[in-house]
Each structure stands twice: as structure tokens, then as C-alpha cells.
Structure prediction request, 306 residues.
Amino acid sequence: MYIKQMEYIVKIAEEGSITKAAEQLYITQSALDQQLLKLEKELGLQLFQRVKNGFTLTEAGKVYLSYARKIINLKKEAYLIIDEIAHKYAGTLKIGLTPERGIEMFIKVYPEFYKSYPDMTIIPHEFPVKVQMEMIASDMLDIGFVTLSSLPKGGYEFIPIKQENFVLAIPISHRYARLANPPGVPYATIDLSLFKDDVFVFIFKESTQRSIIDPLFEKAGYKPKVILETNSNQTSYSMVQNGLSCSFLPDYYAYPDDNVACFNLPDTPPWKLFATYKKGRYIGSAANDFIKLATNYWINRRASDK
Prediction:
């Protein structure tokens, strides 16, 4: 058992295919297949089931994969610490970002990060929060940027960045838009029960945002009529801009617009942005500096910065 062989198995599991894994590893398919067969012979068990659409892990394969990732990451941590002692900052940093605003942040802060860490390779991945948390737990991401209403127990370190608010966004043509405060003034507060006859656009059900949204409508005493569920808050806001629906979304996306009126709701639960990584893991100075840059971006970003 050696590190390179472990990396091969991890890549096959991630890709679900010998062909795709070989392409990612820059080796031939036959060479990778031979490495897998050699290891399976050594262990006396198959690590993968060969199925019609690719490769799936056996029970033995799941055990091997779990420990292989741990060993690979221990090696990565050791080299990271040694490199920092030598003031040598190189390697790879895998970062999880929520769709839309995550990549907006990355584009803004990466040039500054690159000035200090030109030899560090960053691999950004856009994933929903739940997927990020799973990938961090299984050592597939180094750090993630997530928004949560409550923190999951155990297994993670969380660095608070910013508390956000949710807002009710309605078209300016709506009968209650006249109750909105003018631009530059804090949002007026309104009763959600007034909107039981309206149609809404929401983020998809699996999003952690729905842990905020759905209970608010239950408390208001009605089930909203949802005409669209999307993976894009910007799409939701655009629907409101075009007079097609109302929506409820983080105020990050509610930039000033003459066609939209926004309101606060009373007693909306807290919604916080965090940087997170696996508990007990050494992430290094580059990752910590990236978190600082991201924190500075989000704290100082204005709604008009689009």
C-alpha cells in the first residue's frame, strides 16, 4: 500500500470510471486498470463492482477509500507544515463556494491572494451547502463557504463572517409596494400573512435557505403558491423585477432597483455566513489568508456592487 496507489483508487471512486480517472491522472487506462487489479489481488477482495455505467464501491472499497483519503490528507498536512517552516508556499487548495455569489467573491479576492501565494494552485468548486459539508467531512474539500441558520454538531470548525437578513421582495406594481421605505432607509417591516393570495418563486427545496423560508409561511398560516423553484437567487429576483412573482431571499441579492420593493419580516431567524473546515485539520496560512480576504470582501461589499 503506497500513496500513489491510494490516489489512483480515490480518483476512480470520484470519477466512477477507469477511463475518466486515467485522463485526470495522465496515465493510460490499461496502466490504471493493472494497478487496481494488482491491489485487489493483494487485498483478496474487489474494491469496485464493475457495472454497466461504470464503477461503484464495494463495502471493502468504501473502507479503503475512507482510510486512503485520511492518509493522503495527512501527507498533505505534513508537507504543508514543512513547506511553511521553509517559507515555501505551494500546493493545492480546494475551496467550496455556494453558486452565484461564491464565484463573485472568488473573482474579486483571487488577484490579491495570488500576489502573496503565486505558487499556490486553487481549485474552486461551486456546490450547495449540504454538498460542501459532506465533501469537507470526506476530505474532498479543504475549506468551504456556507450559509446556515444553525450549526451542525461535531466534525467541523466554523469561522463566522457575517450575519445576513432575509427580505421579502415584491414587484413595484404590487398593492403593498407603497408601504416600502425609500432607498437609503432601512427596510420597512410587513406581515407575511398579507401575501397569501400572491405567487412566489423560491430557491430549490434542498437548499439550506428553505430552513428559514418554509417555517415563516407555516407561522403565517398558509402554504404559498410556488410557480417556480430555482437554484438561482438572481433568477428569483429577476422574476420579481419583471412583475411575475414575489420572492423571499437573502438581502445580498436584493440590490436597489426601481421595479422592486423590499421588506423585513418580524422575527426572521438568524442567517449567518461562515468559513468552515474539518475539525482538527491543519489548513495552513494560505487557506487562513484566503478566508481573511473573503471575510473582508463580504463585510465591505455593498448591495450596489454588482
About this structure: The radius of gyration is 23 Å. The mean pLDDT is 91.
